[in-house]
DNA sequence: TCAATTAGTCAAAAAATTATGACTACCAAG
DNA sequence: CTTGGTAGTCATAATTTTTTGACTAATTGA
């Protein structure tokens, strides 16, 4: 039984991969970024419950995973834009698959914890 | 500016959803389960680094999210099988999208943390 | 009766994630 | 020269997740 049953052989790098997109704010930030470059303050206004620190952490993680790129824009009130990278763009189908689910809960449902 | 700029409107129930499939062991367990019913000890052997408690937690979470179903099999050495539910099956495309990524890291890479 | 296999439970500790609140630095307008 | 907007940092605290190590309980075989 121990030697006979070959058992299922599947590696599990999904853990690592999913980590890139999970956490309290990363999924949201990622999705915003798929719609075009986003700015720090903009994200902050979209996610009023998030603290600056929380957003900074999330953005830095996405950045170091090479999913988003941080660009300082040398304009009037000097701001920062976050863009999806090529790699980031490759992640979009994952989110599309998530959104294709029937049972996608509403924000309210998700909050009822 | 506050009233003018419509900003991007996207809800973010993805956080909730991704949570169902994340954590240290849930992604792996889920993927094993997509290949057919899995038993507790089998998972434990596939993921030798995981503790019983860790696996139990993960399984209970998947169960209470209605992603897997726990079935006690009344046979010789009385065991337990975990099956994907209908809802669980709906999650498969998400994993397929993940696995379709070019940069899927190997276990080794993922472990180099 | 002792040991092994099945599949866990439990309380506590450790580790990882997230939040808090204060502070920084640049630039522009009043 | 003070306020407001940009985008953060920092040390610490609270919370959540995961691990540790001991223990349970039913059944089977020696």
TrEMBL record, chains A, B:
The record's section on Pfam families has: HxlR
**Residue intervals of the HTH hxlR-type domain:** 12-110
Q: Which InterPro entries match?
A: HTH_HxlR, WH-like_DNA-bd_sf, WH_DNA-bd_sf
Q: Which superkingdom does the taxonomy of this entry point to?
A: Bacteria
Q: What PROSITE patterns would the database entry show?
A: HTH_HXLR (PS51118)
Q: Which PANTHER family match?
A: TRANSCRIPTIONAL REGULATOR, TRANSCRIPTIONAL REGULATOR, MARR FAMILY
Q: Which UniProt keywords apply?
A: DNA-binding, Transcription, Transcription regulation
Provide the protein name: Helix-turn-helix transcriptional regulator
The species is: Chryseolinea lacunae
